[in-house]
Write a structure and sequence with these properties.
Layout: H1 3-6, H2 29-44, E1 48-56, H3 78-88, E2 98-109, E3 112-125, E4 141-143, H4 150-153, H5 155-161, H6 163-180
Length: about 180
């Protein structure tokens, strides 16, 4: 499936230093991913893949959700966000600590949205940070079926089982179909 990517010239926004991304004004991950993809595709006159993702804790009414990167404030660090989450969940035990990562990926051409996909990764929030790898909430998130946090698992394992990987795998099917019809 990754063979389709090897046939593409892949660039990042770093290759377009003058591009200014839109503000994330959507009320869902899906809306934000679509906004970012369609805006960049139109402005750069290229096909674009964009994502929006974050951590969802159902017992906290979905928080941090779309505000995952700024849960503790606009200029908050990952540590600040984790500290706020641990404080908010301090009184919770066992099943009440359920959470999931969500990722929405949008594919757009300069003419508009072509496809969007989503992926999730379910687990629990640990009561303390563990591990030195990853970023964001990785030191707190333990995927169901695993005994280590994402920060302890290492990047290669996380990349195989993550919400982004699941969303990307679904998108690759669409990319292969587009490639086969061109």
């Amino acid at each position: 499936m990754l063979k389709v990517l090897s046939k593409l010239d892949i660039l990042s926004l770093c290759d377009f230093p003058n591009y200014v991304p839109p503000e994330e004004t959507g009320s869902t991950f899906q809306e934000n991913a679509i906004c970012k993809a369609t805006h960049a595709a139109k402005m750069l006159n290229r096909w674009v893949i964009a994502d929006d993702s974050g951590l969802v804790v159902p017992v906290l009414n979905g928080a941090p959700g779309i505000y995952s990167a700024r849960y503790a404030g606009k200029d908050a660090t990952d540590h600040d966000n984790r500290k706020k989450l641990l404080a908010a969940m301090g009184h919770l035990i066992d099943d009440d600590r359920q959470a999931y990562y969500a990722c929405y990926i949008a594919l757009a051409s300069p003419q508009g949205l072509k496809k969007w996909t989503q992926g999730t990764c379910e687990g629990i929030i640990s009561t303390q940070e563990k591990g030195g790898g990853g970023f964001g909430y990785d030191p707190l998130f333990v995927k169901h079926g695993y005994s280590k946090t994402f920060a302890e698992l290492g990047e290669s394992v996380k990349n195989r089982i993550s919400h982004r990987r699941r969303a990307l795998d679904r998108l690759l099917i669409s990319l292969e179909a587009l490639q086969n019809h061109s």
